[in-house]
């Protein structure tokens, strides 16, 4: 029934096989398939209620009234699907630092897709919900699902969608996020991808390698092979960041603290503590590890970083309505 307030929760996901670059900007069709782990620690709660009395969408983010053309355009997609012209009241609370490379847009648009479509009277399958979420943020496609999830590249709106690989997760796996900077990044992922795809001489090699990495990690999940998953995810992340350095103009998401964490991980490994790092488009580093290594890793990190900068997360769940 139109006018009912619907609230949905979506968790962020961290890509183990990154997506970096679009073949279609408008529909957000990626240049390669990607694979991720949804995390329980970071999430977005969003409520949507359509109201005849409104003259425009009313958007509240973390208690503050905002104007966001991107959200309005996303709501227009829902309105077009349902043939309604009513504006909506949207209230969103982000339990993730926004735009800092911790996949805040993934959880934000997955939650908005779920709450918005249901409030408009749609009852979408997870696959169709992932296709809708993709129109707001590519990585939101994967946040519809819990555990290990993938985003099938596809070639058009119909064939580019997310799907579950394994949920619940059988592997002993955690991620420790080190929040080094919670400020929005200077170069957005969207802008960075565009520069890399147009100017990096290594871009086609990246696509070929990432396609191979996708299969390697998918097989590692099936075989419960933590070591292969960790090694491949770490390499994949660094290859993505090499695209930023080889672009024209070059740009960088890694900062001095990021490098310090990377060196800490390497030192831990040399001392027999198995762990691996990954990074998205931002300075924050995520450490992939198993349960029995968490305390050793966090002890080492706490020599340099405060406890509120270190967040331990296990596998998270998919979309749920509150």
TrEMBL record:
Residues 10-161 form the Diphosphomevalonate decarboxylase-like N-terminal domain. Coiled coil: none annotated. The keyword 4Fe-4S does not apply. InterPro entries: GHMP_kinase_C_sf (IPR036554), Mev_decarb (IPR005935), Mev_diP_decarb (IPR029765), MVD-like_N (IPR053859), Mvd1_C (IPR041431), Ribosomal_Su5_D2-typ_SF (IPR020568), Ribsml_uS5_D2-typ_fold_subgr (IPR014721). SUPFAM superfamilies: GHMP Kinase, C-terminal domain, Ribosomal protein S5 domain 2-like. It is an enzyme of class 4 (lyase). Keywords: ATP-binding, Lipid biosynthesis, Lipid metabolism, Lyase, Nucleotide-binding. One of its GO terms (molecular function) is diphosphomevalonate decarboxylase activity. Residues 177-309 form the Mvd1 C-terminal domain. It holds the Pfam family MDD_C. Its EC number is 4.1.1.33. The keyword Repressor does not apply. Belongs to the diphosphomevalonate decarboxylase family. This is diphosphomevalonate decarboxylase. It comes from Apilactobacillus nanyangensis.
